[in-house]
Design goal:
homodimer, alpha/beta, Rossmann fold, 6-stranded parallel beta sheet, 12 helices, about 40% helix, elongated, DNA-binding
DNA sequence: CTGAAAGCGCTTACAG
DNA sequence: CTGAAAGCGCTTACAG
């Protein structure tokens, strides 16, 4: 049923030129005379010819495919980043091939081989760590990798994150300025650099203010775990008067728990602060005070890094950290002099 | 820097067999003796050989890539579907290549050509319509297309949706049973079949109950437009006592507007019902009554349709409509005898 | 079951 | 600028 595919050779014949000429006309930087270009374009459009990306990829070694590994799309931060990433790459003639990390079966290794099988030009690993063997594998395959929203000790990998330590510190200063005295922390997944850095900065900020954490529970970056963590943290009478939750996604579950299961007022009884500033944080039902992770700039840097390595033949990995502001909303008591 | 790529020929030499033999060992259905298989596997693993998917695609004509066109990932329904789709396809050895429809520049045509350039084995168009020229183009290229969450008159295209007409009708019956007398409707984008069908069913259900719509505004499936629509609908004193919003995404904005900008109680002053049953609808802050679109089953059918057309050589397009239940929560007055 | 040969649709030195 | 030729890494009839 399907119409025969038009090849460059057929276009060449119709245009009365060689296959090479056709190829050159369709290759951005190549040289072809105006006359040849016109003949080829005419024949091509009459025939409905378009170059086969895969064939081109085979010989040129450039597939124009970027592999994206993601663990889960439930946390709004990721679909948002994915949309921006995909758009930015599309503008440059690249496209995103998705690989779900499928953390439960721990199959990230297999996934990586599959990615490489597609001869991708680069890999973005979002919220996923990569063993040093795997990163070595990518290096020897000549495929640049950018860690997105996660950093690792492995100095051969590029990484783009927000300034998580500084962000955690800002939250501490804000909460302390608000006069909070019993401060708790609900952690994300312990293996994540974002979790570690936010907590590090938060604790440092508290300490600098002469304060210390009175409670800490792990929420694992999951809503159900975060709810359970909040339940544990708030079971006694002397519960915290403020809680910093390691990301917005969990913070929504914590706020819901406090308000609807415990009947507490936010922020009158408890201040809640999150991290990310996903869209929902700005919805009036939550009005979540949070530290913004500038997804747009993080994506811009990710794409720039990738392009420099793929097209610019840059070899040294980059570590980029983008500072994001504290966004003050109604979920936390606002200190005098701090504005929304 | 990058290590030389291992080819099937090198594996063949090391194993002391032909290139064909290597190919057969790595081709699922092909025949190779146990002895050959063992020699090849050994040589391959020693060399770290993996077949090049792109080269394989070139000659076999099967890229194992499915192109996914999406307009926007902001409505939670889509990232959720994308995650399920990607997982289901990955299990079958396929992967999703993303194309953002970029509706503002109306470039869906260009996007389609780009998709075809990658020699995809199939296309899923989520929340995006397709002109008949484009669908003809895909047909002549022999690439099956499945419309996801949208249907069209074009009978050559497969489409998977939920039972939107029936769903709209259920909402009408529910609202009427709840004793509502002034019922409004906030529409989605007028060009969408989902919008049209939900409204159709809703109006039919009202009519069957002897009622009629007292207000209708267009929200365009966008939160900002939905908020504006709600503002218009509720400006007078005789505002509706119930409003059906064409999807959850807009319903959240409507609820927020009613509660936080107008100080109305939901459901005491106004009942609100949405459509989709995205995760957030179940969060206590919203507790949105809504009609579920069974994303899991919709994805399952989408994948099955695609596989039958790609691998089973099925030729007739399929139109699948999956029924989803009304999920009753606190955002709307609950009629006696109806349970949550 | 197995191998030699042709070919998938393109690009890229190499000469001219 | 242009064309003939080789080759990217594989699979697939075709013989054996």
């Amino acid at each position: 049923m399907s119409a025969p595919k038009i090849t460059s050779l057929e276009v060449a014949r119709r245009a009365g030129v060689s296959q090479s000429a056709v190829s050159r006309v369709f290759t951005p930087g190549a040289s072809a005379s105006a006359k040849t270009t016109e003949k080829v374009r005419k024949a091509a459009s009459e025939l409905g010819y378009r170059p086969n990306t895969l064939a081109r990829a085979m010989v040129s070694g450039k597939s124009r495919i970027i592999g994206l590994v993601v663990a889960y799309l439930e946390n709004q931060f990721y679909p948002d980043a994915l949309e921006r990433l995909s758009n930015a790459l599309q503008e440059r003639g690249y496209h995103v091939l998705i690989f779900m990390a499928n953390t439960q079966s721990g199959t990230i290794d297999n996934v990586l081989e599959e990615i490489l099988d597609y001869q991708v030009d680069g890999i973005v690993a979002a919220s996923v760590a990569m063993s040093s063997e795997l990163s070595a594998r990518c290096r020897s395959a000549g495929v640049p990798v950018v860690l997105f929203n996660r950093s690792q000790d492995d100095k051969t990998l590029s990484a783009v994150t927000s300034a998580n330590v500084a962000g955690g510190r800002k939250v501490a200063e804000f909460l302390l300025a608000g006069g909070h005295e019993r401060i708790g922390y609900i952690a994300g997944w312990e293996g994540a650099s974002t979790q570690r850095d936010r907590e590090l900065g938060f604790r440092a900020g508290l300490e600098a203010g002469g304060a210390t954490l009175i409670a800490r529970e792990a929420g694992n970056f999951r809503m159900d775990n975060a709810r359970a963590a909040a339940a544990r943290m708030f079971e006694g009478p002397d519960h915290p008067d403020a809680v910093f939750v390691a990301n917005d996604h969990m913070a929504f579950a914590v706020m819901d728990y406090l308000r609807y299961e415990r009947g507490l007022q936010v922020p009158d009884d408890v201040s809640v602060v999150g991290y990310d500033d996903v869209t929902t944080a700005g919805w009036p039902a939550y009005g979540l005070t949070t530290v913004r992770q500038p997804a747009n700039r993080m994506v811009t840097e990710t794409v720039a890094t990738l392009m420099d390595q793929i097209e610019g033949h840059e070899t040294s990995p980059r570590r980029i950290e983008i500072d994001g502001p504290l966004i003050i909303r109604q979920s936390a008591r606002i200190p005098k002099g701090w504005s929304t």
